[in-house]
């Protein structure tokens, strides 16, 4: 008697922003299911088969939990990392500068899984790069440019125009002081953003 094995995929309708230099998302495994057959990955194919694991079909890439293999547009996997199961958190990072993809398991970097990636689709970006396990990997000399690229991509995906960080900071400070002033919170009722900036310059 044959038993049918059913598979299903979850895919975001939002692609990785084109202006994003470095993109990272994480998936927490709530349940491995009966046999632990699961994969986390990417696809650049607009008509990806949703009843297949990522990596098996053309223009798809996946890291599979049952055997730890990586799959690149083929049903033949390559040894890559450890297996993963219920409770694990798997991260996937895409470097659009050198077109590579890497994974993490519970915050530990597993190395590059795929090279020469085409445009790919995935899940979500961190608005604050330092809040992700990826932050410690950024070269200090490139942190500002990477953060700027990430934030610019996030704003673009939300249809917001880019603004210089200092301009955004001053706008936030002005709004905060306006609210505090309208609430008559002691000395704050008489403070202006120019006063705050002057004090910062003297320190």
Automatic annotation (TrEMBL):
User: Highest taxon of the source?
Assistant: Eukaryota
PROSITE patterns for the chain: B302_SPRY
Domain B30.2/SPRY, first and last residues per copy: 1-160
Pfam families xref list: SPRY
Q: Which InterPro entries match?
A: B30.2/SPRY, B30.2/SPRY_sf, ConA-like_dom_sf, CRA_dom, SPRY_dom, SPRY_RanBP9/10, Ubq-SigPath_Reg
Name of the protein in question: B30.2/SPRY domain-containing protein
| Organism, as annotated | Culex pipiens pipiens (Northern house mosquito)
